[in-house]
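Think of the structure tokens as a kind of shorthand, similar to the way a musician reads notation: each symbol stands for something richer, in this case the local conformation of the backbone. In the example below we present two proteins back to back. Begin with the first one, reading the sequence and then the tokens, and try to describe in your own words what changes along the chain.
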Amino acid sequence: LVVDDDPDLGRMLEDVLVLEGFRPIICSRAEEAIEVSKTESFPLAFVDIHLPGMSGLELAAKLKEQYAEREIVFITGSSTVDHAVQAIKLGAYDYLRKPFTLTEFRFCLKRFQEKTLLRHRILRAEQRYSQLVQNLPLLIFGLRCDMQLDFVNQACSSILGYNPEEALDTPQWLLERIHPEDRARVEPTIASIFTITEPPSTIECRLVHKNGRNIHVMIKFIPSWDSRSGRNLRYLEGIIVDISDHVFLEKALVQKEKLNTLGAISAEVAHEIRNPL
């Protein structure tokens, strides 16, 4: 969108924008631009500060209200400190002072395109990261120093039977899931992680599933230290792994070993009975 009451400048910018692959909309008044913005979508607007009627600064504020991510480049024939301050407060993307060259205008466009490309790359990276975290078969959580969950992924549902919204809305949800017989050992350990310099990296305990059954887990802690002091721990991230099958297998192996030992002893006793000295 280009909003300027100078028709010659408007036509020139329109030609340049078309050559650069854009579909420009040219307006000469702020009121016209507002009407256009109700039906048209545009990520970038060049706005003359000194417009007849509503000022460019007022127009920019309204355009930002409609879509906060919209970038505004102010065009002005005179630059004052007051205008610059207001432009900064409105989150101006750039500032072109008349008369500006086509090179300056194209450089402004190039910066916008590079920023847009970077924003899209960041968004795609965040989406990939979110999909990865949400689909891992591990319960990933974030815990504040008040023991309130700040984040939990979808595995919360498959491992413990609670959806993430339930977990986040329940005060001290993680602590409440600890088996009563393990709580006296585990709760102080988790609380101490926020105060000691070398916290334990893992804890094994039992958590209680929503349906009441016990889940044997290993909790891996990843402390997040204050970047300035390197000491104060304000946030704790962690991973919960369901090791129930492993625990049951170990118990089964131990039981099998006991049975084998008992069988050997029984055979020896039977042999002694059959063959007394």
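Once you have a description of the first chain, move to the second and do the same.
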Amino acid sequence: MKIPNIHEGKADKPQIEIPTVNSPKAHKEKRLGFMVGNISVPDDFDRMGEAEIERLFGIGSSSTSCSIEGSR
């Protein structure tokens, strides 16, 4: 089997023609809500891990991190 170089051609005409592949049509369904019933999101989703995040960033009343004050 000969593998042609598609970049070579004569008189600005390609040696071979590469036909397009017909791809399947994209679904025209609504995408919003496509996972309804498959997953559940807790009511406190926006607060999940809040205490841990505050602790990691040294925020809040339970902060045990030290702070550096000014420069010498």
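Compare your description with these statements about the second chain. The first helix runs from residue 50 to 57.
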